[in-house]
Amino acid sequence: MSEQATRGWQRPSIYDVAKQAGVSHMTVSRVLNGHPNIRESTRERVLQAIDEMNYTRSSIARALATRRAMRIGVLVDSPVQWGPNSTLRAIEEAARDAGYAISAFSISDDEQSQIDVGVVELVTQGVDALCVIAPRASSLDMLRQQSTGLPTLVIKAESDAEMHTAAVDQRAGAMAAVMHLIELGHRSIAHLSGPLDWFDARAREQGWRDALVDAGLPIGTPVVGDWTSDYGYSYGTTYDFTGVTAVFAANDQMALGVVHGLSERGLRVPDDISVVGFDDLPDARHFLPPLTTVRQDFSALGALALQIIIAAIEGEEAAEHDIIEPLLIVRGSTARPRS
């Protein structure tokens, strides 16, 4: 009995086609997307495997022609992180309200090469548009290599000449956090940033810089973290805080670690050092002390993203770039510096 016959009802995947043709799944993806620089003999071998395995190219053609399926494909990079995960859930909720279904494809930290596979998998489902939650610059660079012909929106704070974009204004949120510290009287404010391959981390770091420049205050060298509480703890226990009276951490998880690390050194928050985070995690108000942070309205972001996507699907004028304003939440982790 053939391998295909033993599959039952399971549709052959791009990996099966790759195995049959003796090529990588990335090569199959590039053939399906019409990429140049593929050897003709390789292209023919892939197409033959597609025909032999009944891998339905007609569904790709229908999707590329934007046939209405009332379904939106969502490509999610780093789905375990709070921001991407919350954005996905908000988009799913907004899609349901608009009568659309969502097909999601997740990319983990060590699977960036599967971005092209994710695009093909979503397109073969006949989606009407793509929404890409791509917080890392490297992910977006790989996405640009794809050509689907579908309306595409990327969740990122910077405008993009090639795609629609929507996001929470990360820079404005960071500026609000740092300005709050400045208004309290802090003059030396350290920054624990996220990985600077992330658009959000870059924007938050820029907001920290801009607020200090506007106030005429010195700018130190930020420490680049990895979003985790463990990194924040290490920073809190080892960083030289001489002269520093406040820390702006790029997310709440690192802020939690910073507070823990400072306490290990006998430094009290906010009596000795104030700490501000970013995200307003559900538990942030229960940190000890409750965390001052920046709240992102993911529900509003999901609704905005769907509004832009649906307008693009229907051929109406759609915003090229739009943003949601964040909100500073002041709690007990910040106070005036001791004189």
What does the overall shape look like?
Answer: elongated
Alpha plus pi helix count:
12
**Structural classification:** alpha/beta
Largest sheet report: 6 strands, parallel
Helix content: 40-55%
Give the DSSP E fraction (strand runs of 2 or more residues). 15-25%
Specify Rg, calculated over alpha carbons: 23 Å
| CATH secondary-structure class of the largest domain | Alpha Beta
Secondary-structure element order, N to C: HHHHEHEHEHEEHEHEHEHEEHEE
Low-confidence stretches: 1-9, 57-67
Per DSSP E runs of 2 or more residues, the count of β-strands stands at 12
Pfam family, one: LacI
Organism: Microbacterium allomyrinae
Keywords: DNA-binding, Transcription, Transcription regulation
Protein name: LacI family DNA-binding transcriptional regulator
Question: Could you please describe the fold and organization of this structure?
Answer:
With 339 residues, the protein is α/β, with parallel strands linked by helices. It folds into three domains: 51 residues, 434 Repressor (Amino-terminal Domain) (Orthogonal Bundle), CATH 1.10.260; 134 residues, Response regulator (Rossmann fold, 3-Layer(aba) Sandwich); 127 residues, Rossmann fold. The chain has twelve helices and twelve strands. The strands form three sheets. It has a six-stranded parallel beta sheet, sandwiched between helices. Strands 7-6-8-9 form a four-stranded parallel beta sheet. α5 packs across α12, α8 packs parallel to α9 and α10 packs parallel to α11. The radius of gyration is 23 Å and the shape is elongated. It holds the Pfam family Peripla_BP_3.
